[in-house]
Amino acid sequence: AIPRDHIGLRAVYTPSDTVTVTGLLTNGWSDIADNGRARRVGASVSVRPARVLTVTETYLGGTETSLDTVGWRDLLDSSVTGRVTKRMSLAFNADLGRNRRTLQAWQGAAAYMRYEIRDWLAITPRVESLRDHDGFMTRVSQDLQEATATVEFKHRQDSMLRLEYRIDVADQEYFLKGASNTVKTQRILSADWVFLFNSHGTASPQQQDGLSSALRKQ
Q1: What local confidence, expressed as pLDDT, does residue 212 receive?
Q2: Among 91, 93, 13, 18, which residue's Cα sits nearest to residue 50?
Q3: Measured between alpha carbons, how far is 104 from 134 in angstroms, rounded to an integer?
Q4: Do residues 26 and 6 touch, judged by C-beta distance below 8 A?
Q5: Which residues, 6+ apart, have CB-to-CB distance to 116 below 8 Å?
Q6: How far apart are CA 162 and CA 3, in angstroms?
Q7: What share of the chain is helix, strand, coil (3-state, %, to 5)?
Q8: pLDDT, tens digit, for every residue of 39-52?
Q9: ∠ at Cα 175 (190, 60), nearest 5°?
């Protein structure tokens, strides 16, 4: 429910230990190169009202292939992350988007749980839903859901191996199977090795959790 890529500049300001403000200027909606001088701006405020709770509100907006406000796209992203116990974290994320020129709208939601079985082993199940009745994100009027189970093996503090199994389900025959057939479900098994880079030394557990969440969301 969000742009696939962000290519541009980002500035982060932390006025206090509990508040973080972020500004963003990019080349448009999932555009690596300049697209008709289109620009996208973003602003995000993250607040930690309690040591174990973080609330983040993000707005992305801008034109696409034109400079008029009629072609403006708006996206509001809300997320709440909480650490229930020393080893368990929960997160909820919701998105509302609208394209002003075509009057298309879409909504997305996701729920995550991460549990550290050992210091070197963690599991992360998640479920997500995309309501795309106007066909803006997928070019098909449909509802989609997915469920994913992820296992993380942390070999060192700056790297981890992730194994993931995912099932996607749509109410239309949307996923490609073979050369030309389409079906309503698809299954994906993947493995990846993640390396964490930090100029201040070994990444903290909070930084690792944040990166893991961002990667899972993508």
Answers
A1: 45
A2: 18
A3: 5
A4: yes
A5: 87, 88, 122
A6: 24
A7: 5, 60, 30
A8: 789 999 999 999 99
A9: 80
Please report which helix (H) or strand (E) contains residue 188, including its range.
strand 185-195
In total, the chain counts a number of residues equal to 218
How far apart, in Å, are the Cα atoms of 118 and each of 96, 138, 153, 158?
36, 39, 9, 16
What is the pLDDT at residue 199? Answer: 62
CA distance 213 to 112: 9
Cα separation, 173 vs 114, in Å, equals 32
Tokens read off for 72:
């403006």
> Which tokens is 161 given?
């191996």
pLDDT for 39: 79
Report which residue type is found at 18. T
Write down the residue that tokens 């997160």 correspond to.
91
